[in-house]
């Protein structure tokens, strides 16, 4: 009877086509999924998934009554000793097969209890059912067989191990020098090393690889040979198998794919099909390096049997392709009342005003994630473990913020991928999105915003200038020279250099990590620095200035970032392996900026002597104007291309002819700045442009650039994206709400730690103090911390003491 009823709704049932995305992993409003107690309801028209609490909402909005109800029961299989051995990580990825802490789906068996449900009465038709109309059968089969939208996006985004196709492979020069390489027994031709060996694919020379940061690895002989010969490609011996090998391009400076590798190896007598792996790949070596560094185990508290925790505010986040930076950041933010109150506590209000398709609504996805973390709904303590073994640690299900990750990363060059990212950069990216979507609503980021005061003093006149800027993060340098164990560290550095000179390796257990106090970092932040070639309007000449920074306002919550990631002398990124003593309570009152002081004389405005009038080839301008372009635009083109010719000027015109100010007179230097600062943006215009999703500062800048012409201002914004992103806003008038301010005394309540040698690899975890105890959030593992490694963090979160 119920099956026949479906004939009434055939016009509401579709078969997903090639362009349709099927959301069958999680609810658009919550984190219910097919394994949840009430399963997941997938609309057979829009293919959006909903938990039972929200499916009626979708029905009432769309009048789509037919849903495929997915219900899965997941049971864990007992592990064999062989399966336990296979759990060792083999690739630099988190939450991916073969990566760190990955959950092997082969360990589980599943029972599916699917049905078709008709709303509003939730009439259920169990499956399979041969009486269903053919269109319904096809729709069900297509939904079940389709790759879920989130998985398709993850596959598309994941390129953590993707290698570029080397541009040198197709036409690689190989010397006919008679070199034949045996299948084993290799040794560096310049030293005695017998591992980490690379064969150059041009001349067949076998040499050792690079020396690693801890002194292990090779002696750099393969790199030295490239510097002399410029032969581009080398293969790592011991990694060659019928499936490929590690190939490095010195020119492209990364691991690459050589599609002709078998041919290139045959040239030197190596049959790729007969080779077996005898050495570790570069991925495996980097994993070993990460796991060998003491901070890896220390930060994760790997040596302790930690007590799992469950309940509100104790929900883990599953790692979806190196998303640990996102997980750690969001755990901390939703431990701050302003974020909980703005999103989690107002989820019903936000959901009510949401569009019928909420997956692209930022406020909905923030509310969904906030409620998922704060409510405890997805952090229920299991009565027994999956295997039934009471001795096995209990584990919560946690939530996977798939839609949130996809939405926040959409269109971003880095965050749209599954590569590891910098947690600090992600924080700032997220704050900009929150600001854009807050508009007339409370912006929870206001509790984090601080104002910094920069003081510049002319060394000759002693006159001073004060400037203020806002920021969300107090980034402080790490002065290695202030290490409390400086003598031991210097001795270690000398010993390391001595061993390297002898081509010997440093034992990892002998590595000395500098110990530094936060106070020294703060002093380095506040210290005066010299500014060369500073133009002083007081003396109308360039001189040396002294610049220092203070904190003009203390926010409710203060974020401190330790600048651990820096550039080495060879301009390659590196991470400082240091220990910084971060106090539980912190008083920053001495670093408060109070503006100009009695007895100080303010430095007059002026960034330099007036610029001379540009010398423009008027003949070239006339020639361009005869082609039909505005004369003032032609003058700009000739000036900006420095009279180098009509071709260059024409190219400039083609790039800038759509600029709203293309035909306006050319103005430079002080005159242009003066005109811009005299224009006061209208409040009405600011509100109109902000309603388009731009910030207040961006709106002010656009209006000033176009004399408050609203229509031209909108065009200016879209034609000057680089200026909006890269040019600091000149704020001669107040912009937005004033930063919150209070006393400078704070208490540590959370910190995010990074393990690994760079932001491009490794792993993030966070520790948060909840109800007087420290809790470690390691993706979906939530436990009581026994020894929170407060000295090894990267980003610290303090709350003000009242």
Gist of the model:
Among the domains are: 2-157, Zinc/RING finger domain, C3HC4 (zinc finger) (Herpes Virus-1, 2-Layer Sandwich); 164-290, Herpes Virus-1 (2-Layer Sandwich); 618-726, Ubiquitin-associated (UBA) domain (Helicase, Ruva Protein, domain 3, Orthogonal Bundle). The protein is built from 25 helices and 29 strands.
What percent of the residues sit in helical stretches (DSSP H or I)?
25-40%
Shape: globular
CATH topology assignment of one domain: Herpes Virus-1
Q: Major sheet, described briefly?
A: 8 strands, mixed
Q: Counting H and I runs of at least 4 residues, what is the number of helices?
A: 25
Q: Which range does the strand content fall in?
A: 15-25%
What is the number of strand segments?
29
* CATH classification class of one domain: Alpha Beta
Low-confidence stretches: 90-97, 290-294, 386-392, 670-678, 726-737
Average pLDDT, all residues: 83
CATH architecture of one domain: 2-Layer Sandwich
CATH superfamily of one domain: Zinc/RING finger domain, C3HC4 (zinc finger)
Determine Rg (CA atoms, Å).
31 Å
Give the termini separation: 67 Å
Q: What structural class do you assign from the helix and strand content? A: alpha+beta
Catalytic activity: Thiol-dependent hydrolysis of ester, thioester, amide, peptide and isopeptide bonds formed by the C-terminal Gly of ubiquitin (a 76-residue protein attached to proteins as an intracellular targeting signal)
Keywords: Hydrolase, Metal-binding, Protease, Repeat, Thiol protease, Ubl conjugation pathway, Zinc, Zinc-finger
Protein name: Ubiquitin carboxyl-terminal hydrolase
GO molecular function: cysteine-type deubiquitinase activity; zinc ion binding
